[in-house]
Amino acid sequence: MLAVGGQVRFRGLLWQVVGLAGQRVHLVADEGEEVVLAGHLFADPTFSLIGPEAGGKAQAAPQWGLFETAPAAARERALAWRRHIREVETGHPDGAGAGHVVHERYDPKRYTLAEREQAKAEELTALGFGRISRSTVQKMRLDYRKQGLWGLVDHRTTRAPSPAGRTDERVVAAVKEAIRRRRGRSKGTVKALFPAAARILTDRHGDAVAMCSQATFYRLVAQLTDPREDIHGRGDGVPGPREGRAFTPTVALRPGEQVQIDTTRLDVLAVFDDGTLGRPELTIAVDVATRAILAAVLRPHSTKAVDAALLLAEMAVPHAARPTWPDALRFARSPIPHREELLSVDERLQGAAARPVVVPETIVVDRGKIYLSETFTAACQTLGISVQPAPPRAPTAKGIVERTFGSLNTLLWQHLPGYTGSNVTERGRDIEQHACYSVARLQDLLDEWLVHWHHRPHNGLRHPVLPRTRLTPMEMWGALTAVCGYVPVPLTGRDYLELLPVRWLTISDHGIRLEQRTYDHDLLGPHRGQPSPTAARGGRWEVHHNPHDLRQIWIRLPGHDDLVEIPWIHRDHVRQPFDDRTWQHIRTTALRRGGQEQHEADLAQALDDLTRRAAAGHATRTEQALLTRAQPARIPHPTSTGHDTAQPARPVPERASPPRRRTAAGRTTHGPGPEDGTGAGACGTGTHGWEDTESLDALDTEPDTGQWPDDEDDDGWTTEDDGRSPAPPYTGLGLWNAHQEAERW
Fold it and tell me: What is the largest CA-CA distance in the chain?
């Protein structure tokens, strides 16, 4: 083969090929240059290819790794072939630099390459190599030039055995198709797979191809099944072969640059409010740069989009420390750099837990409905957070939060009673007898344990100068904050209301209708039948609602700086918060009698009867599960701002004038409700009902204990007056009032 870079002998001179252009060959020698037609060059009797560059390429580097995998006999034969190939090319078995020619029949100056190859074929045949032809010698020489020593190995000795053996390829294809169709289905036997493969073979080739024996089929299934999957076991177990993805570590250089959020079912049985046992759902947010768990929320059942939206706000504000916690768990005692500077910038840190405070920039979520919902994306847009959905079927995109779930299991959950293990094979006996913690108690334990997590050295956090030194999430946060800075974010209760789901509704003469519920108040009077100032929504009004407590809504009215709370007209008749699932259950079970107002009154009565039956223990399992899901979300009180005294942020009725309520006939009356002689509906909390001046004062003066004042329960009822059982205490943390703190500054 003549190629650029090769050397030729022509007209008694040594030339080097420097170019090929069609049939023209450009030759360069010490005496000058010359361009010769290829046909004329090859026909000249003085022309010959010389030297090891005759193939046009440099000799390939020896592939010793592959060469060592060949059997010993194949390696010895390849080494012997190499000496013979060198002798054919250079005249010496050890190469051109070894010296004089050993045998005159392989002298490149006297014989052409073809003549030398023919001589070598005759010699190898005489030595017992078998019937070796000139073409065999030529092939071995070219393989040696392309692949080095590995090209001289007999590859029949290195070829892996076929998993199908001598079975017909069409039968093998049918077996593979049967295995593919079984993947992802429930457990089955190999014997049941045999007729499926036979049907596939018949459908494709008819009777032209016979099915293999059952023994051969069992062997084929064992050979063709990937070891990582178990087609005889659960279909949703370890997946089979699929398109792989390269793993790239996630890197963040400042707090909040990337925060990963995910939800999983907790591996601990908890006691729900109705006395049943179940595994609550845990949602956490992990900062990649500091490995800090910025927020963690437990829900009895399915997590809603509003829970994920409120989780965003909890990351950006300091978490208040419990009064019963030791001082070592408080931020003021945390051994982090620049602690005094941080305390001077944000006074909320003085009584906060020793946990990082981070405002997320980008949030990585999976493609769950709650994270792709309009409620969650709108909340992220309000807080200036970018949402980045993870690619489908790419668990490594959220590897840090997934690994954090495992750390929670090994460091916390497995030490609690009622731990179920990660799967049924790890579950103990009678674990239901050991479950004793409620969801609220588990949330309190988790909040306290998270402080210890942030002061525990993390293997993923290393000092850049001392790579063997592990840092804690708190130390990493303090170090990065000193570089990136810290800006306190003021969030009040009204900011949380802005994160609630939004519906665009009209205001009729009877109020606001939402899923067969009527919300009404005197503040709606001037706006009944009027279009809203927002022309883009066709005259509808902006209404916020809490899916966990539908007893009131919030609407944005002209002349009010904040959202105004509008109660349900039958709120006085319902003794507990209820969610959308409970309401849908009541709507499907209650019979419709009379008009629209009568039907709504019947629904309210049925809802109250359901809560009473559940309190007495006479509700069905479905009804108990519905009421368990109806626990209120952790929404703080929208306390009074103190900067707008002319117009309150939302109506605060006086005790001397109980709120009006609508009867079944649609008449408006005043006075206490039929079940409460003290006007219970007039003094509920800001989250679930009305909020009076006394409750506001109590919240402003009493210390933040994580619960409501002792004289009122969660729904605003005074239990000493009406004798009814109190609702579960509110476990949310108090919030910083930005306006009051601004007055102090």
Answer: 127
Contacts 24+ apart (CB under 8 A), 522-527: 522/651, 522/660, 523/557, 523/564, 523/566, 523/651, 524/555, 524/557, 524/566, 527/557, 527/558
Give the whole-angstrom CA distance, residue 109 versus residue 529.
110
Contact between 570 and 583 (Cβ < 8 Å): no
pLDDT per position as a tens digit, 385-410: 898 888 877 777 888 999 999 999 88
CATH of the domain at 378: 3.30.420.10
Radius of gyration in angstroms for the set of CA atoms belonging to the chain, rounded to a whole number: 41
Which positions ≥6 away from 13 have C-beta within 8 Å? 29, 31
Total of domains in the chain:
5
| pLDDT tens, position by position, 664-678 | 334 333 333 333 333
List own/partner pairs for 376-384 with CB under 8 A and 24 or more apart. Answer: 376/305, 376/308, 376/309, 378/309, 378/502, 379/308, 379/309, 379/312, 379/313, 379/499, 380/312, 382/498, 382/499, 383/312, 383/313, 383/316, 383/359
Q: Which residues pair with 278 in a beta bridge?
A: 270
- In a shared domain, residues 376 and 467: yes
Q: And the tokens for 487?
A: 């800006």
Residue 495 within any structural domain of the chain: no
**Enclosing domain of residue 706:** 500-740
Residues in the chain, overall count: 745
Quote the pTM value. Answer: 0.52
Q: 362 - beta bridge partners?
A: 386
pLDDT tens-digit map of 576-608: 777 666 777 777 776 666 667 777 777 777 777
Q: Is residue 251 part of a domain?
A: no
| DSSP H or E stretch at residue 173 | helix 169-182
Confirm if 178 and 193 have CB atoms less than 8 A apart. yes
Answer yes or no: do 347 and 459 share one domain: yes
* Closest alpha carbon to 581 in 176, 304, 360: 304
Q: Which pair of structure tokens corresponds to residue 520?
A: 């009404």
Q: Between the CA of residue 621 and those of 270, 548, 617, 618, 725, what are the distances in Å?
A: 17, 20, 10, 9, 21
**Residues 519, 659 share a domain:** yes
